[in-house]
């Protein structure tokens, strides 16, 4: 999921450059939409990783929560 977020960030950057270069609001809105989708993917990825880490048993270097 992180790779797709990186790809979306690159697409958003290209759309931002196109919006600034052409002065078109349509490209700017496209950039906003792509960046919001990328941010949501990053949030989902972070939350799913956090849930997996919370469910794993304590091992070396990890302490049990009391």
Plain-language structure description:
The structure is a single chain. This protein has 66 residues and is mainly alpha-helical. It has one domain. Helices cover 79% and strands 0% of the residues. It contains two helices and no strands. It has helices at 2-22, 25-55. The two termini are 33 Å apart.
How many helical stretches?
Answer: 2
Mean pLDDT: 86
General form: rod-shaped
Total DSSP E strands: 0
Q: Note the run of SSEs as H and E.
A: HH
Which band does the percent of strand residues land in?
under 5%
Task: Please provide a brief summary of the model.
It comes from Nocardia stercoris. This is DUF2207 domain-containing protein. The chain is an all-alpha fold and 66 residues long.
Features:
66 residues; mainly alpha; 2 helices; DUF2207 domain-containing protein; transmembrane
Give the helices and strands, then pairings.
Blueprint: H1 2-22, H2 25-55
Helix pairs in contact: 1-2
